[in-house]
Amino acid sequence: MEQKYAGDVSASEAWATLQENPKAALLDVRTIPEFQFVGVPDLSGIGKETHCLPWQVYPQMQINSDFVEAVKLSGMTQDQPILILCRSGVRSVSAAVALTVAGFTNCFNIEQGFEGPPDDKGHRGNLAGWKAAGIPWKQS
């Protein structure tokens, strides 16, 4: 089956792209409670900000019908690299596909997301993903 978005990258690859490419943007598609209670990537050290636009709306978790329009209004453009992040790399694939269908040409899924899979104790953020890679992040 043909891939419907630009591809998958690791958190470390995404971080390198954000540092090296002035046009690259980070789009976090988790829910508002996740932004507030789990934390968000901190791009302040490289002079950028994380675009936090939920793909699904908490608590019902329905698809955000305004998602594509919100991305357009955020200032991100259809041809710039957009690195898309969720908790574990699942919702971000759906968001990347939706944006690609809407005409965005460089949407990348960040594999393992912000927290990655749970460890043997059921805790996330230790095995893989943005947090486990030691990339800057902050909590509100």
TrEMBL record:
InterPro entries: Rhodanese-like_dom, Rhodanese-like_dom_sf, STR4-like. It comes from the Bacteria. This is Rhodanese-like domain-containing protein. Gene3D superfamilies: Rhodanese-like domain. It comes from Kiloniella antarctica. The lineage of its organism: Bacteria, Pseudomonadati, Pseudomonadota, Alphaproteobacteria, Rhodospirillales. Residues 20-121 form the Rhodanese domain.
